[in-house]
Amino acid sequence: MKPNSSSASIWRITSIASIVATLLLIGGFVYAINDVINPVGSTYTSGSSGQDNTAGSSATDTAQTTVPSLAEGVRIVSLGDSLAKGTGDDAGSGFVRRTVSLLQQQGTDAKLVANLGINGQKTTAILSSLDQAGVQHTLKQANLIMLSIGANDLFNGGEALGNLEQEAPSATQLLKAEPETAVRLQKILTKIAEINPDAQILYLGLYNPFGDLKELRVPANEAVTAWNTSVMGMINEQQHMMLIPTFDLFQNNLSRYLSSDHFHPNGDGYEQIATRIVQSLQ
Questions:
Q1: What sign does the CA torsion over 64, 69, 70, 76 have?
Q2: The whole model's pTM is what?
């Protein structure tokens, strides 16, 4: 008995659909694995939409110098750790793309030249990357450079959480790597300024992601405050540099602004940072 022509067509369509679905699944899996094994920064040239947001506090503590003229347009390059990359944001935008979007919503000609943020990156890696011709060329295309680095050096990717069952670390213990990290950050800031002396450099201040944990709230607050104060001293000695404070944004809003990993901001948290950055440029 010959199969009905309609049934045969249905089987052919079903088979083709299954093959296509399988290929897409394999392709997505390969892409995800490659992103983990070979993490790289992403480029971005058009604004992605961000959520409407009003920052809880102003950037009155921001160390301000001359900023790029918004009327002439803003060309952004970001580099640093997972916050620069936008890890934790389900929308995949992070504070960098959200900043571009907010500027564009205000009518500013804003473009993201490149995002060089890499998960887990520390000051040693950033300092080394600044000797690469490709990174230098990219930085020279910007008039606004955003830098997020230091948290992995100080908190070592959140390992402080792993020792709570034994003994909570003190601020001194959390700042064990601070002297060497501060020296490297000073070199990073100086090097970036040498590569592009005309660009405004924004350094993202640290917040305390462990503020809702009783054992870590005080020592981590002290460590983060000490670090931000140290960086402020470096910023004040440089031209065209600014520290963007984030400590106050997260201090009493961790449940609202942290992602499920309890370390990185979520979309709302990144939106708060982006809003603070845009305020600092006005």
A1: negative
A2: 0.75
